[in-house]
Specification:
There is one protein chain. The chain is of the alpha+beta class. It folds into three domains: 157 residues, Roll (Ubiquitin-like (UB roll)); 393 residues, 2-Layer Sandwich (Creatine Kinase, Chain A, domain 2), CATH 3.30.590; 142 residues, Four Helix Bundle (Hemerythrin (Met), subunit A) (Up-down Bundle). Helix content is 49%, strand content 12%. It is built from 23 helices and 18 strands. The strands form three sheets. Strands 10, 11, 12, 13, 14, 15, 16, 17 and 18 form a nine-stranded mixed beta sheet that branches. Strands 1, 2, 3, 6, 7, 8 and 9 form a seven-stranded mixed beta sheet that branches. Strands 4-5 form a two-stranded antiparallel sheet. A hairpin with a 4-residue loop joins strand 17 and strand 18. Helix 6 runs parallel beside helix 14, helix 19 packs antiparallel against helix 21 and helix 21 runs antiparallel to helix 22. The chain starts with 9 loop residues before the first helix and ends with a helix. About 2% of the residues have low confidence. Bound molecules: adenosine-5'-diphosphate (ADP) and magnesium ion. Magnesium ion (MG) binds next to loops. GO terms for molecular function: glutamine synthetase activity. This is Glutamine synthetase. Belongs to the glutamine synthetase family. It comes from Candidatus Wallbacteria bacterium GWC2_49_35.
């Protein structure tokens, strides 16, 4: 029997808090369950009888688990999740002085949370604040056990009164439909009859840091911004690589076990945990799931992590770059396409026919990056991720694809039509199609690539650790769906003409190889040469978020969203505004936090120590004078007062210290001025421009001076916990 995180069997507690298909099968009448399966699996329309029956069973199940309230759980554009609890309460119509627990099908399907304060990017004015949440039956409802009563959470989409998309989930769900339809179209060309859906599968590896709460609580930057804005390089960082895959400390393991226990109950299939490269950096990876479920689960994972970390005296940091000088955190999104026959369409096949099909899906992925690399870049842009992208530890800000040596070779050979000089093992002459045998590439993977093909899936490595995966995955799905349609159309046209399907496909694949060459890059993405080469290949380069966000509104880049009905122009425009607003607000808050920390902690510490040095130097000078005066009287003191008594270095240090204090004081004044300038600018794009051109360099300069002072100030005077305290807490 599972009693708690100290003692449990995974298979017994898995899904204990989810109203999943197993529970539904058990609780629903057979016919209703069958109908529900059709809704989830085949996209059939939901009727009100089914909704009522599901609502009733869901309520009974939730009440038995101690739920008092329910909420439509949704993902507004803040990147977080939102909930507004309603009690299961209604006056009994037969006995109006008593209340009963009630929950109807219509309450399950839709709710109107008002929700006028969520970002809408201008799509909704406050006077027509209505936003609706609509049940997503494809993601199981779950129970959050908290406080005195549990809460039934119903995964939902969030839309405006006029049907405009206001959340992260709706575009993801639409993109999943789009890629399923496009993939099925291709599969049908290859003769498939049985496949009725293709699922975008995602496994998100989540990196994070744990800081000790007792030190983190004394840092305003960690509390407000979730990352440090100041802090000198610790004497030891990650250079020894002794943390990576190291043995997990008891205190951390305790946290991980409770954290995973909570997740497993919510059906999050936690699989892997390990120490990461930077000190006190960790990773958790669940088994991959269908994209929208993986997205819901990743949101739950991030929330649960923060909550359980607190119980263990930690602060979980999900920011992309919580500490300078050590690696930042990403969220590698592993992505593939799996059909209802259980085949992974990105898995190289065993027969030439299968391989031909594999190549079509592979080329569609390359075409997606070639055509919509800018949009993919925009989908992962955030103030936090800017610190990571392009640094020598994370994928660069340029979208390219790594395929590995063998696949690259095969594509080159198909393109050139030469098949002779391929080695036996990786190549098989198949007569008609002359198609190389493609097997899983065993070569080492390229960790510097933002999008790496890893044998049977793509790893989108540029996604930031704090980001919702919904938008990056929605963009990837949409871009690949568009490419699949394009390839299918070309294959159809050519086959009609030539009457030879295989030859037509090879022709189309060949053209696609030629057309997508510029996004293939096998080298070191961190190198300076790549930056130059990418520019020469005219790949979209965006060095920061404001530059990246412009791709949202570039019609060439966003055509896969508009063309497939994922988001319309107005919805894209609103997202563009929301992203700018979020970027600006994030940095404005960081700027305000830094000003406060410099004024109230760093400079007061520095002035205190400056006073100590001043008085120390002053007394040394006074002592020398006294000795000089006395030396005439006392011969013994004569030598002590001689020129050996050199206090110049002390004076020099004082000057240097006082100089740095003045410099920081001036920097603080400048930061205040810039802050006013930014506050007074109303235009979002101009505001972002001020941030990039003025605020960020000024913040960096102030930081350099503050960090210098930290390294030379008496630790008793320095009130701010240091990196060593934050990173090496045991
Ligand atoms: P790594 O060597 O990068 O750790 P893993 O095989 O452990 O690779 O996978 C990392 C993540 O990728 C996990 O979340 C895993 O479930 C997911 N993953 C594995 N296969 C697929 C697939 N076909 N599609 C999507 N995600 C996958
Ligand atoms: Mg990986």
């Amino acid at each position: 029997m599972a009693t708690g995180p100290e003692n449990f069997k995974i298979s017994e507690i898995f899904g204990e808090c989810t109203f999943n298909l197993n529970v539904m099968k058990d609780k629903l009448p057979k016919q209703v369950f069958k109908k529900f399966l059709d809704i989830v699996e085949k996209g059939r329309k939901l009727d009100s009888d089914t909704a009522d029956a599901v609502a009733h069973a869901m309520k009974e199940w939730a009440l038995a688990k101690g739920a008092t309230h329910y909420t439509h759980w949704f993902q507004p554009m803040t990147g977080l999740t939102a909930e507004k609890h309603d009690a299961f309460i209604q006056f009994d119509s037969d006995d109006p002085i008593s209340v009963i627990e009630r929950f109807s099908g219509s309450q399950l399907i839709q709710s109107e949370p008002d929700a006028s304060s969520f970002p809408s990017g201008g799509m909704r004015s406050t006077f027509e604040a209505r936003g609706y949440t609509a049940w997503d039956p494809t993601s199981p409802a779950f129970i959050i056990e908290r406080g005195r009563g549990s809460i039934l959470c119903i995964p939902s989409a969030f839309i405006s009164y006029h049907g405009g998309v206001l959340d992260m989930k709706t575009p993801l769900l639409r993109s999943m439909e789009a890629i399923s339809a496009a993939a099925i179209r291709v599969l049908k060309l290859f003769g498939s009859k049985s496949v009725y859906r293709v699922k975008a599968a995602v496994g998100a590896e989540q990196e994070y840091f744990l800081a000790d709460e007792k030190f983190a609580d004394k840092r305003l930057d960690i509390k407000i911004c979730g990352r440090t804005l100041l802090g000198a390089r610790p004497v030891k960082g990650q250079e020894m690589e002794d943390h990576y895959f190291g043995s997990i400390k008891d205190r951390v393991l305790d946290f991980m076990q409770e954290f995973e226990f909570e997740l497993l109950k919510l059906s999050v299939p936690c699989k892997t945990r390990h120490n990461e490269v930077a000190p006190r950096q960790f990773e958790i990876a669940p088994i991959f799931e269908e994209a929208n479920i993986a997205a819901d689960h990743n949101q739950l994972l991030m929330e649960t992590m923060k909550r359980i970390a607190k119980k263990h005296g930690f602060v979980a940091l999900l920011a992309e770059k919580p500490f300078a000088y050590v690696n930042g955190s990403g969220k590698h999104c592993n992505w593939s396409l799996i059909d209802t026959d259980g085949n992974n369409l990105l898995e190289p096949g065993k027969t030439p026919e299968e391989n031909l099909q594999f190549l079509v899906f592979l080329m569609a992925s390359l075409m997606a990056v070639e055509k919509h690399g800018g949009l993919l870049r925009a989908s992962i842009a955030s103030a936090g991720n800017d610190h990571r992208l392009g640094a020598n530890e994370a994928p660069p800000a340029i979208m390219s694809v790594f395929l590995g040596e063998m696949l690259s070779k095969i594509l080159d050979q198909i393109e050139s039509g030469k098949v002779k000089d391929v080695n036996e093992k990786s190549f098989l002459d198949m007569g008609i199609s002359k198609l190389p045998k493609v097997s899983k590439d065993q070569t080492d993977r390229n960790r510097t690539s933002p999008l790496a093909f890893t044998g049977n899936k793509f790893e989108f490595r540029a996604v930031g650790s704090s980001s919702s995966i919904s938008i990056p995955v929605a963009v990837l799905n949409s871009a690949v769906a568009e490419a699949l349609h394009e390839l299918a159309s070309r294959i159809e046209t050519l086959t009609k003409k030539s009457k030879n399907f295989d030859a037509s496909v090879i022709e189309v694949v060949k053209a696609a190889i030629r057309g997508t060459k510029k996004v293939r890059f096998e080298g070191n993405n961190y190198s300076e040469q790549w930056l130059n080469e990418a520019a020469a290949r005219s790949l979209p380069i965006a060095r920061n978020t404001p530059e990246a966000l412009k791709f949202w509104i570039d019609p060439k880049q966003n055509s896969c969203l508009t063309g497939l009905g994922i988001l319309n122009e107005e919805e894209i425009e609103s997202r563009y505004h929301i992203c700018f607003e979020q970027y600006n607000k994030t940095i404005e808050i960081e700027l305000a936090t830094m000003i406060k920390m410099l004024s109230r902690q760093v400079l007061p510490s520095a002035y205190l120590y400056q006073k100590e040095i001043a008085s120390s130097v002053e007394s040394a000078v006074a002592l020398r004078e006294t000795l000089k005066d006395l030396s005439g009287i006392n011969a013994k003191l004569k030598s002590a007062a001689s020129e050996d008594f050199d206090i110049e270095p002390q004076v020099r240090f004082f000057k240097e210290y006082a100089g740095a204090v003045s410099k920081l004081q001036t920097a603080l004044e400048q930061l205040r001025g810039i802050k006013n300038e930014i506050t007074n600018e109303d235009d979002l794009v101009k505001k972002a421009d001020l941030i990039v051109k003025k605020a960020l360099p000024a913040m960096q300069a102030a930081r350099t001076t503050a960090d210098f002072l930290e390294t030379v100030t008496d630790s008793d005077c320095w009130s701010l916990p240091t990196y060593s305290e934050l990173l090496f807490w045991d």
